[in-house]
Design brief:
This protein is an alpha+beta fold. It has one domain: DNA Primase, Chain A (Alpha-Beta Complex), CATH 3.90.580.10. Helix content is about 40%, strand content about 15%. It has four helices and five strands. The protein is globular and about 40 Å long.
């Protein structure tokens, strides 16, 4: 993939698949209305609920630590310890976005 990666296209494709991505990335989570509640896998988190992702917008936050982001690319980067560009590339590849 070249340097012309379109983050907006990657985020749009990821938003369309976000419930499935969240179930894969955060398997102990649950949908609650338009939010997906889970444990944050990047810290010792005993209870579901302080880590939430809006399934319509992709905005996410860990209310216990203050970590947050505005889209699926930033969520993937956070969860898997990747740079934004690497997370976007991996999502693009996974979702077939060119």
């Amino acid at each position: 993939m070249g340097s012309s990666l379109n983050f907006a296209s990657v985020n749009a494709a990821a938003l369309r698949e976000l419930p499935a991505l969240l179930a894969r990335w955060l398997p102990d989570g649950r949908a609650n209305g338009r939010e997906y509640e889970a444990r944050n896998p990047r810290r010792v988190d005993r209870r579901v609920g302080s880590f939430r992702v809006n399934m319509r917008t992709g905005r996410w936050a860990d209310f216990a630590t203050g970590d947050r982001g505005g889209d699926p690319v930033s969520l993937a980067a956070f969860l898997f310890g990747l740079s934004q560009i690497e997370a976007a590339r991996r999502l693009a590849d996974m979702l077939g976005v060119s």
